[in-house]
Amino acid sequence: MATNLQLRVLSSEEVGNMFDKCLHLLSAKGVNIDHPEALKALAKAGVQVDMNNRRARFSKNIIEEALRTVPKSVTLGGQEKENDFVLPDSKGPFRTRTGTGAPEWIDPETNTFQALTIDNVAEWGQLGAFLDEIDTIAFPSPQDVPEETADIHALKTLFENTTKHVITQPYNLNAVKYLLELAVAAAGSKEELKKRPVMSILACTLPPFTLDSLHTEVIMRATELGVPIFPNPLAIAGATSPVTPAGTVLQSSTEILAQLVMSQVLQPGTPVIAQPVYFSLDMTTGKTLQATLESVMGSAMNVQFIKEAFHIPTKTWGFGTDSYTLDGQNMLDDLLRGLLVALAGGDLLLGAGNVNVGIEASPVQMIIDNKLIKIYKRVLEGIKVDDDYLAWKEILDTEPGGHYLELAHTLRHCREALRTGLSVTQPRDTWMAEGSKDLHARMREEYQEVKKQLQPRAISEDLKKELNNIVKQADKDLVK
Predict the structure, then answer these.
(1) What range does the domain containing 82 cover?
(2) Helix (H, G, I), strand (E, B) or coil at 250
(3) Where residue 171 sits, what CATH number does that domain have?
(4) 252 in a structural domain
(5) Is the pLDDT of residue 147 over 60?
């Protein structure tokens, strides 16, 4: 039985060729780093640094040493220990994450777009905790709290409302300190956070080959605490990266490698999970897209390359649509992306619940994506082939023109078919009598039933007070 179906976009020779080019780009071209403290630390460690041009170049020896010290597996701790897991996951093909950063909320009752609130963030965390196929939670962007501390308010809200691992995307340079303070509080101490990180954090590059002060600060402070880092290049093919998928994958992988090397130079052993994301510029409209076929294939290619060249876990979109609503395009985008990235070996599939290139967050979409995950996993299982599953005896014993309905074999296996609830399976008359509901209507009803069961996470009054005090101090220090 082919229990490990795989998609290999690249040959081994192509992987080796691209890896050599990554080494050349980092050693000869380097990256710009807009952070004097980081440049001084790198220079002290032996990295070639041009302080005037803020350019760092990494020798082949330094890169090879970083690839030796970076962990090949990473533990992510849940807010409750039963939700801990390791990447790559030996117990399953991949793990999953909700979408992040969305400033708008698709109201399930009216199907209209609204400014996302801190209450929506709380529901997002509770829903992600409830759904069985969602493993990590990232926060959308609340619009009813101060802009300078929106990420701090959102992270604190997730710690209060989900039992699962939390992934953080910082919005402001000055917020990084408080985000990490919240993580220390949630873990119980700096030592516990390092031993069992209940939070991980994104560090983005601004293509081509630039690390701004915010995301360099993330790397600097996260390495001090042992918080896992997700290097996340924000390439837009045709705009900030080459228009060809192979060119964008090469550039993005090099930018990820730069962050990986920085983290190991600063603190060997810092956990790193590569997050190659791929946008495309639509040359006819100027709109940035995430679900073009080139983007999907490029994501699968990037996953394979990083796993084979850098030997670290990967995380990229397993969900994501360019559609503005929950329609057929949405389902097509999600299903194609999720299957290809899962088959390519993605370790953490992100984006559950996001719509319109991540601008909208939809709880109904998260319900749908939770079901799509079951499909991805079933496909990766393959099909079992032995005498029992071949029904060898039953085929031999059944006369021409007979049937299999009453056989023990049928009874034994009839419940193995995957039933997600996404498809209509009842007779048309029954479907019409029940209101002729389409997919969106059925999933909205399921969401309404799930919502009745959602509740905040039970945390101690001491922790609640500590989290509140950190947010209050951040508002006092940062909000103008």
Answers:
(1) 68-381
(2) helix
(3) 3.20.20.480
(4) yes
(5) yes
